[in-house]
Amino acid sequence: MSVNDRVASMFIRMIQGETLYLKDEETRYDVKGRTIERYIKSIREYIEDSDVNLNFVTKTNPPRYCITKNTDIPFEEILALLKIVIGTRSFNKAEFAQLRNRLLSQLSKEDRNKAIQLTNSTVAKYVPVESKYNLLGRINDFSNYINDHLTIDYKYHSSSGLVRQGLALPISIYFDTFYFYVVMYNEESNQSFPYRLDRFEEYAASKADKIKMPRQLKKDDGSERNNTYLLSYGNKVNFEFYYSGYPQTALDRLPDSKIKQTLDNEVLIEGNAYTQGLVLWIMSQGSRVRVKSPVSLVNAVKDELEKTLRYYE
Domains of the chain, with CATH numbers? Predict the structure, then answer.
C-alpha cells in the first residue's frame, strides 16, 4: 500500500467516526510512530487548508486522533436526548431503535461506544406504552397539516371506547406523560380539543371542506401548555390548596402555579388549571393535598374520594 493510500484510508476511517490510536496505527502499517505522525500531519493540514466543515482533534494519554464535524451535537446533548427518548416510552421498539441509532450516528466512534455503555441497561429493559401505530409518520403528517393549515377528516378511538368521526383543523402538537397529542379546532362547537396521536384510526386531508380558526380563539401554545395538565377536558379554574409534600413537586406538575403562603408544615399553592386533570393529580397525592377553593373543586375531589371508598365497603 502506497503512502497516499495509507493517508486516504486513515482519513476515511476518521471521517466515519473512528478514533485512530498512534500505537494501533504503528502495528497496522508496521511503521514507526514518527511515520504515522507524518501521515496525521498531512490529514490535519488538508483540513486546515480546505474549506471543509471539519475539525481535527488531537488527544493525549494515549496519543490518538479524530475528526469532528462543526455540525456535530456534543456528546452530553446526545446522551441527554437518548435518556429522554428512553424515559418517554412513547415509541415502539422499532421506532425507538431507529431514533437511538440516528442519535448515536452523530457521535464519534469513541463517544458512541461510551453512550452505548451508558444506556445499555435501560435499553435492554425498554418497555413502550401499548400502541398499534407508528408515531414518527403521524408526527410528520400532522406537522404538515398544521404548517399548511389543512382541515382533516378523521376517525378517532376515544378513551371511553367510542369511535368518533369528524372534521377538524389541527393547530398544534404536544407531548405529555408518555403520549403525543394534537390539538384540533372543531368548527361546530367553536372549541379546540386535544386528541391522542396514537388513537386516530384513520385520518386524511379533507378534499371538500376547509376550516378557518377565528383569530380571537387562537392561543399562545406555550401559555396554554403551562395551563394544561394531562391535556384533559373540564373547566379552567383558579385554585388554592394546602400541600404538605415537597413544594416543587406541585409547582413542576402545575406550571401556572405559585406558593401564596408558607406555613409550618405545608404551603398554600394557587394557580390555574383544568378541573379534570387537576382532580386526577390531587388524587395521586393522597393526604398531602387539602383543597381550599373553589367549592366546585372541593366537591369534585370529595366525589372521587367517595367513589373510591365505596369500592372497599
Answer: 3-69 (1.10.10), 75-124 (no CATH), 149-218 (2.30.30), 236-310 (3.30.70)
